User: Fold these one by one.
Assistant:
Number 1:
Amino acid sequence: MSEAAAHAIDHHEPETSTGIPNKKVLMWAFLGSDCMFFGTLISTHLIYRKISATVGGNFLDIREIFDIELTSFSTFILLASSLFMALAVSAIHKGNLTSTRWMLFGTIVFGAIFLGCQVYEFTHFVHAAGNELTLSSYRGEPHVFGSTFYVLTGTHGTHVAIGVFWLIGWLIYSFTGKMSTADAMDIECCGLYWHFVDIVWILIFPVVYLMEYAF
Amino acid sequence: MSTESLKYLNPESQTDLKTKVFPRPGQNTTGVINWLTTIDHKKIGVMYGMAALFFLILGGVEALLIRSQLWNHNMDILSNREYNQMFTMHGTTMVFLVIMPLSAAFFNFIMPLQIGARDVAFPRINTLSLWCFIAGGLILNLSWICTGGSPAIGWFGYAPLTDTRFAEVLGDMGPDFWIFSLQILGLASLLASFNFITTIINMRAPGMTMMRLPVFTWMTLIVSFLIILAFPAITIALVELMFDRTYGTNFYDFLEGGKPHLWQHLFWIFGHPEVYILILPAMGIISEIIPVFSRKPLFGYGLIIFSGAIIGFMGFAVWSHHMFTTGMGIVATSAFSILTMLIAIPTGVKIFNWIGTMWGGRIRFDTPMLFALGFITMFMVGGFTGIMHSSVPIDAQHQDSYFVVAHFHYVLIGGALFGLFAGFYFWLPKLTGKILSEKLGKFVFTLMFLGFNLTFFPMHYLGMIGQPRRTHSYNEGHGFETWNQIATVGAFILGVGIAVGVYQFVTAAFNKKLKPAGKNPWDARTLEWTLSSPVKEYNFARTPIIKSRDQAWENNYGDKDKHSEKEPLGDHGVHMPDRSWCPLISGIGLFVFVLGMLFRKTIEVSDNFLATPYEVAIGGCSVFILGIIMWSLEGPGGYHLFPKENEE
Amino acid sequence: MKILFNKLQAISIAILPAFILFLGGCSRVDHKQSALDPKGIVSQNQYDIFMLSVWITIFLFCAVGGCLLYVLWKYRAKSAQEAMEVPPQSHGNSVIEVSLIIASTIILVILAIPTLQGVVLMNRVPDPNDTQTLEKLDLNRSAIDGAITVNVTGKRFFWVFEYPQYGIVTANELIFPTSRAVRINLRTEDVIHSFWLPKLAGKMDLMPGQENFLWFIANQEKILLGKDANGKEVKYSIDDAMPPVFNGKMRERIFAKQKFTDEFEAVGGLFYGQCAEFCGNSHAYMSFRALAQTDEDFNSWVKSFQNAQNPNLQPSAYNSENEYSKGSLVTFSDKSLGESATREFRAITEVAQGEAPNLSKKVWTQANSDDFEQGKKLFSSLQCVQCHAINRTGLGSKGPNLTLFGIRTSLAAGWMRNDKKNLTKWLKNSNEVKFGNLMWNGEGVDDNHPLRNLEDEDQKVKQLVTYLLGLK
């Protein structure tokens, strides 16, 4: 057998059987799995939202504590960030580094605003005088709403936070000068993730927030 | 062929690499470092297999202790708490640390060879999933030495028994260890499954269409989909339980409005697909072995795959048959009862097709075939008792009795483990290049078959005359003694059989007396048998062009136009990626992180301690993140090999 | 060769009778907790469907297994040369496959129909107006109309049986009439338990925060039909199989009839049950009994419990100003038992107002012996009352209710026979008998607790035992 040291030749991404790059398939598989994560959490919330430890009564009026204007605003911000993300992916495909960088920056800022809103919201809920919604109780009465609410929206928030750190990674990378259209695939995967997280929020917002005003 | 990135290093940047802290170990790495940093799917498969065999012995010892305790009424070999820990650990170990990783070992080792790939799609993720699995196994078994000992909650940890409110030892940490080890094992399974899905969908050799895939690879694909769709349910259930135990949420606390029913639903939405996650790989192995030893192609290939997919799909629709006695109401129980009966049909189809395969063949009774036949008969018994349980009124007597114990051992030992042993006897020659001793193999089969039936058949009867499962002792005067003694004797015979088998597998590589296997010792049918044994590190010197379903067979016996061809070897040879430290570093980080999370409240921080648990957790997490960053920056590296035409 | 054959013959001659004896031994399936010996309508239904499924699967196993054996024999490679032959490479036959699928579907339908009927039967007591169903089940309307309700509460590690219709509570022994349906509501106060009464009802879990339901109705004919020690079918009389519980006859009969360790129950009216869902350290010890009674005996039992647990029948200190009806309870101070100790008496005739206390046997019966009275005091002073209620006294519901404990057949949630020897052993060190039980390990019990220090107190234990077993 003849062996030789590594040498650089014009390597190219090997053709895959389906023509879709491996990383994209992996990302789709992960997102499929992530759907089940959020599906489980959302169904837990739906099962529990009307259950109260006090026999006979659903005393919880969560509308008193929700700040629907703020949440609507942060929802809008998160959706807008998706636009930036899409533009970033499109820009890197065209090889426009400056535009990519700005669009990534925009996505990060909007993601961070969303996170900030969520942090504000959580603190506000926990410290709302006379109305505290904590993990285990509401107004000092044991309740499950707080458990499902914080764990569900918190898991989503963690997803956004991971996305933000990922994007920051790309932003830093864009300053090293190594970034090229060759990275388009990787940024697209990042974009897939970001859009998915947005779509999940589009589901969470009506199910967790709006529904309290409807039913 | 690297698939990790399209950026290749030019020689200049490779010199840069040497200045890095953890450079990727290159071509000539040997010894321990070679194993620790390997990203070769074959080596990873071997490590999966070795670790799983170790846990098989461990779980087996636990089982034998359980059986010894039940030898007679009111025995005190184990106290009741020890017994409860033993069956919890036995169940958790066997499901998550033995059958699943053994299947993963075969997925890793065989699947890329069967589809004509040089490795899986993401070799380093594959390594990470191995280290996560080992970390999970370690964490689970570390519980023995911590407060409260191992968990004593049963392998499905029904809430609210897992609640701190009902802990029977002050500050019991057992359930915490259980939660975290399952989480990290789940991570391992998820990572591996993403990888396998991508590999099977994307890395098939030219001409290897989906309907030419070997059945085992098909089952790998189905099982991987089951894993990625089923594991999230238990991950979330465990997160909620962890929050209940640690931060005082009320998910399962019925006194504060939670519903213990929810745990059961979430657990079994995972748990029932899990049953198929355990059995489908074995079915895939059997579907490979029976055609080989009958010298006929698989009867109804399409139907077998379709029924596998149906089983997987319907596995998500029958979970509540584990909960017939929890008071779900007439409609729900009836619906799940009917669905459960329906799932018997695709299972039956498989058995018919295996028999159809043998019909008209030339059947040889080598050890793999014996195990495969053992699988069919034992799985039939387990399947039939399963049909009984699908009927709610029958289940009202069987649920949580020894009848159920008998049923799932028939499926998981008689089914899954026999199938996996068949796989060992079948494919080990491909791994070691030597043929295993037939004599010893048949001896192992006899012991296992006898011991197994002796152990578990009487349990059907025991269940019917009223022995409940998970009781550390039974009272005299129920007539349980005789049958329990038979079962215990059988268990020891089975134990010896398994131990001899494991010894045979582990020593196979070093045993100099064994005869060399050659490329295709069984005259087998699928693509991996066109390769030399042991397989070269690059698998295929030249990517094969597939022309038919049973390619190795067609190459020997088929028409000329069905013989496989080979892609030309490019002038840059076969690119091999370098080994990598990053998965190991990330795995260690994760392990330390989990330990830090575990010791949140029970370890009192005194002056002797260097770090508080929080610091440990943060440290571990940092190492993990650092590992990931290094991972993303290290680049593929690699070297090129120029094998000759026939060197594969 | 011949020698070998002879040897085999000898061995088989030796083994065969043993084997037959062995099988004969197993031919009796009416073990104490056996689901194969149904004695009620619901369990009979479950058993019938089970046997149907057994026959179906035996048929399938023989058919498929026989086919497999045939194939293995017929198509085995008889020589090394044959093993290298290449048979015709057929890939399948869709007609065979589809017809096999249809055949297996039909077989499943055969099982599905009784299953669905069984589900309804298990979950719903038949409507008394639905004469058709009642006829089919061979039930009287009165059995349904007069159904009794029992609220079962599972606790670690014993059972509370409450009869809301009668306002009485007992523990670990469920008394029920054979002539009436028994509706059982299942609840739990801690973790999940499962109520399993194999011969009567199958099982149902006790889920926290939810009430589950189960019902059964025993078949008196089948209860009377038993087997004697040799396995012969015998029809016992009602007195043999279901003697009255309320006057202790049942207990006597069970104790006299056989040893606790015997494999088969000689008294047909005694049923064994068990917790079937893992609930903690002492899960294995969480069993119970169900005792069948005739209507009359059941009513007497209810009456004696109602008497015992009636708060209006509280004994009061004797006051000569009051008048006392027959049967009322009165306490007098009795120095012989110790300072400020009292003794309970019962009036056997009416006592008119102003009549002087007359301790002669004519008017008052002295209730019990000295040991009994001492034991009663100890029951309070040793803090037993904090967890156990007896009659109307006692605070606790943490432990089993011990009302009329003297007529109970079993002790420690059915783990052992309720006699002097066992009760003594239990009181001295219950942890040795049932490791992990909450009487020894529960909240508030530590090494200083008097309960944990009875090991060497033979006198006290004897008095307690006399008291507890004297509660009749």
Number 2:
Amino acid sequence: MSILQVNNLAKHFGGLVAVKDLTLSIKPGEIRGLIGPNGCGKTTTMNMLAGLYKPTRGDVRYHGKSIVKLPPHIRTAQGIMRTFQIPKLFSEMTVEENMMVPALATSTEKTPEFIEALENKATEKLTFCKLDHVSHLLAKQLSGGQRMLLQIARGLMVEGLELFLMDEPFAGINQVIKETIMDAIMEMNDNQGITFLIVSHEMSSVRRLCQTVCVMHEGSLIAEGSMTEVANDPLVIEAYLGGQNAASDS
Amino acid sequence: MDLIILTQYVLSGLVIGVIYALMAVSITFVHGMMKVVNWSMGEYYMMGGYIQYLLITMLIGPSLWFLGIPIAFAIIFVLGVVIQRYMLHPMFVGESERMDEYATIVTITLMILFRNLAIIFGGPYQYSVPDYFPPTDLGPLPISGNRFMALIGTALILGILYYVMKKTWPGRALLGMSQNRIGIQTAGINVRRLDEIAFGIGVGLAAAAGALLAPVFLVWAESGSVPTMKGFEIVVIGGLGSIPGSIIAALLLGLIESLGSVFISSEYRDLFGFVFLILILIFRPNGLFGDRERLA
């Protein structure tokens, strides 16, 4: 059974059709890429999957059950985490507080043992993401790449994380941190079986990480397959290059 | 001018500033958390005053006046939660494009409703609450007992608010929401619940201010108007959404009003604050501690 099944998903903003009749299925343990030209509806799709946007129509099924009416925090509690191209952090809090606040604010248990266990978990996840040396800094003091890593580390604090939705995790990030993020994704996938849906414009990273890639254009899914397959698909080439228009322009 | 007298006016200004601070903090608290301006804040202040009056005259008596403040806070907190849940929450449903206009219409409607309810039930009268404390001295400043208690009470309430926000995890979650609403939702926290708590605390603070200041400024249907006006003035001077900014701006406004009354004329007391506000808007449009908005 698919971990995530999207059926005929559509999103309209007034007269603008951002996503139309999107259908896709992701198997457990997969690292799926979602690519497409700017404005093709990738981020809108991610927002609908995370519960931030209510679809105009269509259904989203997680482990076979519809989650389309669930608010974002319930989806997170069920194991779905989402990161953003511009990291959504608590800028005036320390890195460690960014890790701890969600778990401690929602838990009724506040015993010293529970807090200590949580602190240990936070330290472990920060070490995994190579952020342990900056745990005392405010989030706003981090570099862009470190902020992205912190989003990922915070996602790992979610109990029972199964599906990680990542929106442009490699955008504007130096090569060293990009490698760290890719290593972290592969390790989480291999060792914990976490499923990923990654939106990215970084084709080399998508090629390295994703077995299957979905291509969107003007709100619709136009191709699906391995990176090599979709790269040779005429529809994809036309979507990216403008087809005959591009040829005639040049 | 005698140094002692000048010190008295400075202290008097600071006392007024601290009293103003509580109302300003309640306004900026709601804005900081929910990103909406609550135009009916003065009416929660007014209701806090009425609750205190009723409690003292009918239930607890003048000697237990201090119990009225947490009771007023609690009653208005619950009312705030209900209002947030059923009247303000719909603006966060879906992708509302005109949230500010929605909040403005709802809160101004509530302002009119509560004022008229106060007139219906309380009549067009001004009610006087018995003194909390006899006149006393604050260093070289002779001060009314009511203002002295308002000073102590405000400092205590702001101290508790600081502790809750900085030292407790639910408080930090509220701070997290003020820093990033989307981030807090996708981190697994029920932002709807936080909105209810934030709105409840904000209007509860206004009610606590109303109860605390009931003997200083009488209780009547429009008793919230002046504190609200001062509160908004302070919030703009301090920077919208900044709690420390509101406290410092309140102290500054109190000082300016007090010293302006001495050196120029007490007839223009309110004018000094507005001149200060205009200067701030010219030279620091985002207020003393407001964040500059990034345009590109």
Number 3:
Amino acid sequence: MGRYLLRRIVSLAPTLVIVSLLIFTLIHLIPGDPARVMLGDRATEQDVERLREELGFDRPLYIQYINWVKGIFRGDFGRSVFIRESMVDIIGSHMAPTIVLTFYALLIAVAAAIPLGIIAAGRHNEAAGNLIEIFAMAGVSIPSFLLGLLMIIVFAVKLRWFPAAGYKTIDEVGFWPHLRYMHMPAAALGCMQAGFLIRMTRASVLEVLSSDYIRLVHAKGLDDFRIIFKHVLRNALIPIVTTLGQSLMLLLSGAAVVESVFNIPGIGQLIIHAVARRDYEIIQAVVLLATIINVAVGLTVDVLYAIIDPRVRLE
Amino acid sequence: MTAENSAGPGGPMLDIRGLSIRFKTDYGVLDVLDGVSMRVFPGEMTALVGESGCGKSVTIQSVMRLHDEKRQVVYDGEIFFKGRDVLKLTRSEMRAIRGGEIAMIFQDSFSSLDPIFRIEDQLLECVPEDAKRTQSGARDYAASMLERVGINEPYLRLRQYPFEMSGGMRQRVAIAMALSRGPSLLLADEPTTALDVTIQAQVMELIRELNRDLGMGVILVTHDLAVVSETCERALVMYLGQIVEEASVGDMLDRPAHPYTLGLVRSIPQLEGPKPERLYAIEGMVPLPGQITRGCRFAPRCRYALPRCCEETPELRPVQGSQSARCWRIGEF
Amino acid sequence: MSDAMKEISPVLRDIESLKGELKREQRKIVIRRFLRNRTSAAGALILLFMLLCAALAPAVCPEGPYAMVMSERLAAPSAKHLFGADAFGRDLFARIMFGARISMLIGGAVSLASLASGLVIGLYAAYFRRLDNVLMRICDSVNAIPAALLAIALMAVLGASTANVVISLSIIYTPALARVARSSALSVKESTYVESMRALGAGPGRIIWRHILPNIIGPVIVQASFIFANAIITEAALSFLGVGVPIPQPSWGNILYEGKSVIYKASWMVVYPGAFTVLAVLGLNLFGDGLRDILNPKSRV
């Protein structure tokens, strides 16, 4: 187990190096003088010169890259030109709602998808199974931001069950009222992943059900409860767990868009405002940080995978 | 004949009468078995022989009603096990028989052991309730079962996963599982096909020994006539969902009555005697179930077929002694 | 041509022609199955409808998507404005029809571009072991960056325009296609057939493009159809965020963005473009699903 984990971590190193290079080059691809682009045409030549020096744009690219990476290891993700706060504070305050939204959506998706996927597999030639399949297909075909807009029309404008948009932090209003602002966004965001996971679970359970080892446990005379909950589910869960990492990443990605539907001040909003202001330092830092989170999630999933599948752990 | 007298002393423990099976699939109804009858006596080892797809596995799996778990299936006929028709049992009665009185071993022990549980977990599921009262009692029982099938260091093996074992070892584990509740009937579905030749002999010897020592009835499903000739007393030959010949193994090998059996016997490679030009092969391919609606099902591939064979369907007729065959030309070749 | 090649070339020709026949036969079977498979037929029908919308937009809506009638601002759906009108009094039906052009254009261009680059990367990675490590690492790295954020960052750097949306989305979706191409190509590469071609001295280029490519085209096309669907979604999302297709061009995402601010007054601004987006994505998903079932009947239990 320890060796497996170590190997996974070591193999991540090149990925992280390439990611940092990609992000760095990306931002420095901007045609023209980045300092001039940031400040706009009306800025004086002196202001531009000062910014250029401040951000180190006057030095060779590879030095800039090295300094940037060094900074990251010190916890310094660069400095916004427009917001006079440390980058960690800026991103930290915007990351909180995004993380809450992402995990709430994952919770909704998993809680809905796994039971429905199992039912769809168990009744795969019956009306209930077909209905779930149609629901899953619809789920994967509705973009989450669009579903969010439609939910606003139905639940906020017509039925007035939920606030249409807006956001209050836990500190402002406490946990449960805070979550009230999150129900609709999380449901909208989770729906597409629920669709994917339903289909995944269904296929996985069906495959396990038709396997030789399930035939053998039937031949051993085990009762249905033991067969389903011990042998079928544990085996069917393995491929599902491996896709959870991908789900979480897609949710994190989608959260950026859904936030803008519901005016939630998360990293999606942060990066969109940064794009509007051409605040490239923020864009760079947000993308890098989201990627690191993503990689960490992937690693966690690998560990989970090893825990439930002895073949991975021991081979 | 009633159920009672078939279960009497000296009678067969398993008596399948006119069993027909249809599977309902997305593409329509599939006829997989047609009027199969067979009997198994205690302590007897019966072979069920035929090409793949002929219905051998379907037949023995229907004894445990395993098809019910996977697909929509229609049974016709009767399967008496110790006087009770298993086709009339409820699910929970069926479950008590499965693994208890009737046990099964499958062809591929790699895919038929659950990959993510230790041998211990899987073997303990088969340990009888009274041995399970204490944890160490159950473990000891499981270990003794492993020893019974010739596995050394059983306590070590109990902690292993299936993928950590060799194929022969896994098949022994599968046999240990099958034996752990002392079944009176063992259904062995090509138990040695996936194994090396030397391991094959060992596993067959083990099954044979258990059959002799414990007085278990055994049905051995195989396409390997060499194995049959070494281990079984009686053999049934199947073709396309029908029994085409039933005989003692000696009769079947010496004077096969059905052209299909003749083909199977001739295709055994001979070590002694003159070397033939080439190995005998039965021509053509096995048709799909339901493709042949009239006449003898083997007729399209039979070198002795007459026009009559394609028109009229032959029944299973006695040949000599306990031998019978489903052919219009019995004794003519 | 080597001597060995010359000697067995007639045999090879026979095999080739037999294979050709087999291919044609297989193709016929695939087409027949495709038409009988309800999923893929429904998907193809929807796709056809969307392409028709895109093609016929100028004919059906001669005034175009920009004609403003100030007196009809936010007019509700009626006989005159089938889907209503937007905040500038532009006919929503016309904007959605022309929006289909942008969605189909972007989706099609992105799936073609990722198909081309993904195939090159995947095939060469599969064939040359040295390249494999490098290429797949780069693909993994691109995949590790959350897609929407990468798209936003790319758009920020490149600037909002339809062409740049195509470029950004192609970068994002190429790794997925490369993965599929590579894994399919790896299994084909191990086949005796390719081994023997290599033994006969056929060059890598010839083997890759003439012999491996035709055998992996199925799963690759399936993947491309899912990329088409995802590109439509992501384009709409980017435009909705204001970093995709620049306004006033009539992209579905742009209409949804404008619809968001009038959601209390004019729900049709969200409902109609939304319905078209869902329909297009659904069609492509059905199409891809059906195609996958046809090519790999085992996946459909």
